[in-house]
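Final report, closing paragraph on structural work. Over the funding period we assembled a curated collection of sequence-structure pairs, and we close with a single example.
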Amino acid sequence: MDAAVYGEGPIPSWARFLLFTPQMDRLGPLIARSIQQSGNEIILQAWHDPQKVTEEIIENYRKPLQLDHWDRALWELTKANEPMRLYERFGELKMPVLVVTGDDDRIVDTALSIRLGGEIPGAELVVFEACGHVPQEECPQQFMDAVAGFIEANR
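Its predicted structure, as stored:
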């Protein structure tokens, strides 16, 4: 679902050495905290129709930001994120694969999900119309129908 398997991750390889300096270990959590201000914009960007984003949805996405040291954890996760080059191993997949995306995914470009569906041998691709990065939330019935149909077809 909206798999980000292409690219280098959030930090380009030419800049990765900067992550491991003592200065960045102090600045990194401060940078991570910027999500407290920009987080709502990211949530709204993830939906095709931001009008469907309720206060409850925003509140649920923001819950992890209330935990102690969440900023340090996000920074450490960012530092640990290495390019995995998963696309080089698609041929090893022997199980049924369902690739799901919305036609208006602005987080992981829809074109990349379509590419993924074409590069995984035998994969089934489902693209939901008028749906963004979180089809399981924005288009839940279509999502569940696609997953249930896929499971039934691959029993």
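The first helix runs from residue 22 to 32. The mean pLDDT is 89. We thank the funder for supporting this effort.
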